[in-house]
């Protein structure tokens, strides 16, 4: 896909304002879309939308499904409008913090209400099929259209029955998906399975409505595709043929990165793909994953794009990343399959920190822009490629990302000499807030797409950082308060876009 010059803002859905402890698909999302419309920006970027679990630190990049939506994002007011909750059942709303997500408190409040809505839907369906005919038909159509939902729901039911175990520790008949064992489990857990399917159908309906509102505001959504999926996920359990597993459906190799000068490498633990076997059916699992993605987003950022060219595979029984080896990824073959299936695919390639000629050629051949983030820059080095004034056209320029510090936090931690070099390169003399100096520099660069975060627009420091890689506690919690999304802020961003972008 060939992008037109444009701009956008990153803000994950959990960070949106709203009364129920976490950003959701209701009024807070509508308010943010209104802000983006007033600002005149073209794109809204989010993290993966899948369910999160406390054991993974609520990371949307370690979800139990690459297909499912996060039930915590469901708008409860929407279920009141559907008639499956009463307005007074939402009361009393706990005294949630407005600037952070307390995930445990949100679950304690929202999950019983989702269960009540499901039970009411089921009861009404049983008592008066004619009265719930349209909704029941839509639910059944969703289940037929999205077969992953049934597998995900069964996975969640089995996981809840064995909360101390991952699926690789389940009894062998379930671990290896023996048909009789699966049939018995579906019968035993039928109600729980339908509950999870109901939540996924509800998320799907509400997200489709949100996408319609975004389109009306002239905003396209940028989604995110982690190249690897979590081991303890419905994806690996239900699709063992897509991954390098042993005869007992346990990983034979896991992903990571090799040691470099000054570090010991990383062992991520995600199972690697069986690319040769996937190629035999034209990458069917990936085509289904992309199909679901394009239901949810207009554009997608492909995380760790290098992994599609070559990847570091570590034997599953080895703890040392150095025990791994480089193996070839699918390269052109995968993206040719994507073009056959979907036409030109709107992808952004996350290529940060890697230099690889084959990766660069692949991106160029398919027109995928890479990424540039000024926090990676050496400000003392003339012509450094991460300095915005040196961005080429075929990149997406960011002020910061979900994985970096905020711009102000980064700036405050710079050594004095590096800060002076930054001032020199930006032509900065303290005449405006430092966050707007970098926003303006990225917007005025040659980058085909200029992106910033809400935290950077607001000039927030490290306390507002969204995620610190390599840590678990305190991540993915930051939220914006509704009053911060002011008309003045939108107007300033609009003026910048009109001068540099449109």
Automatic annotation (TrEMBL):
EC number(s) recorded for this UniProt protein: 2.4.1.25
UniProt record similarity statement: Belongs to the disproportionating enzyme family.
InterPro entries reported for this sequence: GH, Glyco_hydro_77
Keyword Transmembrane: no
Catalytic activity: Transfers a segment of a (1->4)-alpha-D-glucan to a new position in an acceptor, which may be glucose or a (1->4)-alpha-D-glucan
Coiled-coil boundaries: none
Protein name as it appears in the record: 4-alpha-glucanotransferase
A GO MF term: 4-alpha-glucanotransferase activity
Keyword Calcium: no
Biological process terms in GO annotation: carbohydrate metabolic process
Keywords on record: Carbohydrate metabolism, Glycosyltransferase, Transferase
């Amino acid at each position: 896909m060939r992008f037109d010059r444009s701009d956008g803002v990153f803000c994950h859905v959990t960070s949106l304002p709203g009364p129920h402890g976490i950003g959701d698909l209701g009024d807070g999302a509508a308010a943010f879309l209104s802000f983006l419309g007033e600002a005149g920006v073209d794109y809204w970027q989010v993290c993966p939308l899948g369910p999160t679990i406390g054991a993974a630190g609520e990371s949307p990049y370690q979800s139990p499904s690459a297909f499912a939506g996060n039930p915590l994002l469901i708008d409860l007011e929407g279920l009141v409008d559907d008639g499956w909750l009463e307005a007074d059942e939402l009361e009393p709303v706990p005294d949630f913090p407005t600037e952070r997500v307390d995930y445990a408190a949100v679950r304690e409040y929202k999950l019983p209400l989702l269960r009540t809505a499901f039970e009411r839907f089921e009861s009404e369906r049983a008592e008066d099929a004619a009265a719930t005919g349209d909704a029941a038909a839509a639910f059944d159509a969703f289940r037929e259209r999205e077969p992953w939902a049934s597998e995900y729901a069964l996975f969640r039911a089995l996981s809840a029955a064995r909360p101390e175990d991952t699926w690789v520790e389940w009894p062998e008949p379930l671990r290896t998906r023996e048909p009789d064992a699966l049939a018995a489990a579906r019968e035993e857990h039928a109600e729980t399975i339908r509950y999870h399917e109901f939540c996924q159908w509800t998320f799907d309906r509400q997200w489709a409505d949100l996408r319609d509102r975004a389109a009306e505001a002239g905003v396209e959504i940028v989604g995110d595709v982690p190249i690897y999926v979590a081991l303890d996920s419905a994806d690996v359990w239900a699709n063992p043929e897509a991954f390098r597993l042993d005869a007992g459906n346990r990983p034979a190799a896991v992903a990571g990165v090799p040691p470099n000068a000054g570090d010991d490498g990383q062992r991520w633990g995600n199972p690697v793909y069986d690319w040769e076997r996937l190629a035999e059916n034209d990458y069917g699992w990936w085509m289904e994953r992309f199909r679901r993605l394009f239901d949810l987003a207009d554009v997608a950022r492909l995380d760790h794009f290098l992994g599609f060219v070559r990847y570091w595979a570590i034997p599953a029984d080895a703890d040392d990343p150095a025990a791994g080896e480089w193996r070839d990824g699918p390269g052109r073959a995968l993206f040719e399959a994507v073009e056959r299936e979907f036409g030109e695919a709107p992808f952004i390639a996350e290529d940060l920190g890697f230099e690889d000629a084959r990766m660069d050629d692949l991106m160029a051949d398919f027109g995928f822009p890479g990424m540039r983030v000024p926090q990676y820059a050496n400000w003392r080095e003339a012509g450094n490629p991460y300095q915005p004034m040196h961005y080429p056209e075929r990149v997406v320029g960011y002020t910061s990302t979900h994985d970096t510090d905020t711009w102000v936090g980064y700036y405050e931690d710079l050594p004095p000499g590096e800060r002076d070099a930054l001032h020199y390169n930006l032509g900065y003399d303290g005449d405006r807030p430092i966050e707007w100096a970098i926003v303006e520099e990225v917007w005025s660069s040659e980058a085909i797409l200029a992106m910033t975060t809400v935290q950077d627009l607001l000039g927030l420091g490290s306390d507002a950082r969204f995620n610190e890689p390599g840590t678990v506690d305190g991540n993915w919690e930051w939220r914006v308060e509704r009053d911060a999304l002011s008309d003045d802020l939108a107007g300033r961003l609009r003026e910048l876009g009109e001068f540099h972008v449109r």
